[in-house]
Amino acid sequence: MSDTPDTLENITYDELHEGDSATFTRTLTEDELVLFAAVSGDVNPVHLDADFAAGSMFKERIAHGMWSGSLISAALATVMPGPGTIYLEQSLAFKRPVKLDDTLTVTLTVQTKEAKNRVAFQCVVHNQNSEEVVSGQARVIAPTQKLTLNKPRLPRITIEY
User: Fold this and answer.
1) Domain-by-domain residue ranges, the chain?
2) What is the pLDDT of residues 119-133, one digit of tens each?
3) CA atoms of 143 and 13, how far apart (whole Å)
4) Rounded Cα distance, 30 and 3, in Å
5) Cβ proximity of 13 and 143 under 8 Å
6) Which has the closest alpha carbon to 12: 145, 135, 139?
7) How far apart are the C-alpha atoms of 108 and 19, rounded to whole Å?
8) Angstrom distances, CA of residue 62 to CA of 5, 49, 131
9) Of 24, 51, 92, 97, which is least packed with CB atoms within 10 Å of its CB?
10) If residue 52 lies in a helix (H) or strand (E), which one and from where to where?
11) Torsion over CA of 107, 111, 112 and 118, rounded to 10 degrees?
12) To which H or E segment does residue 21 belong?
């Protein structure tokens, strides 16, 4: 697998084995939280309004649950199996809130290889304190052709209030 940060290399169906695992890590920033709200349309004040969130059961702003879920998608798309993966289904259980500046690590583990290049993954997400924040299972169609691609350059996004 390529270790160059500017490339993405997949792991094909034939290369995957039950028990294989991989990780993907990302930190929740203020900008990411606001951008996720803007893109998803989920403007629940528990995510965006500090005063409102202070009166909630969490006592502070928290991330959208699906932000954590989107990290699982990113791990499947960029790490294992990687480019060419087709996402079929996902189950998620949200175990604890994710807060600003939390660093989450997704661990994907191959559970089973199925017919027609389908693969089931156990998905577990931990925060920087090794606390489980999300768990679930994903099913994908794994790529059959080996690919190494340049990582796309995303546009710079600025947030104005």
Assistant:
1) 7-27+64-147
2) 999 999 999 999 999
3) 6
4) 29
5) yes
6) 145
7) 9
8) 30, 10, 15
9) 51
10) helix 50-54
11) -30
12) strand 21-27
